[in-house]
Amino acid sequence: MTNPPENIICSWSGGKDSCFALMTAVKSGHKPVALLNVLNENGQISRSHGLPPQILQQQAAALGLPVLLQPSTWQAYESHFVASLRQLKSAHNATAAVFGDIDLQPHRDWEEKVCAAAGLKTLLPLWQQERKMLVYRMLEQGLKCRIVSCNDTLGPDFLGREMDDVLIADLEAAGVDVCGENGEFHTLVTDCPLFSVPVQLPPSGKVQHENYHFLQWKL
Questions:
Q1: Could you give all domains of the chain from N- to C-terminal order, each with its CATH number?
Q2: Is 198 within 8 Å of 62 (Cβ atoms)?
């Protein structure tokens, strides 16, 4: 690699983009030292993906990495994120943070801002890659994931479906970006080459909050 290896914190959603960003960074020679995930204010589920701590901790254990689960309101999100980055930097001698964003410039701007505040470099290994090609690369490289939340355009029938050729075709037929980069859906990674064991998912039901649908985990 052209740049020296970094000790990296992964901004970990539990979904395909953050996981593939981590996989790509590791393949480039970087060393992961910790994961960071922001939960809702009561600490019961993660923001956007709706994942309980137990599933995120399973993923972290499969990766062999510590995970910091930080409860936060949306209002305090940025300050909590910066403080968490600083905490992990200090505890694990981190030098950079890796993010799974692909092409949304405001997201990149924010990530560079919070990393600068924490004294870390920003790595976006998936940046400006073509979205559909990226999803196929994820599958080819052994990443397995399923939809855990989605908007009304897709509806509850898409919840729980595993990412494969059929799902990609169905997403396109519904007029939805196959990467979900615009927030149409979110995924949960159940296995990948970095995992020592697959994630064992608890039973789940389905629940709707406003115009968004989520798997509700029965723990």
A1: 7-123 (3.40.50.620), 131-217 (3.90.1490.10)
A2: yes
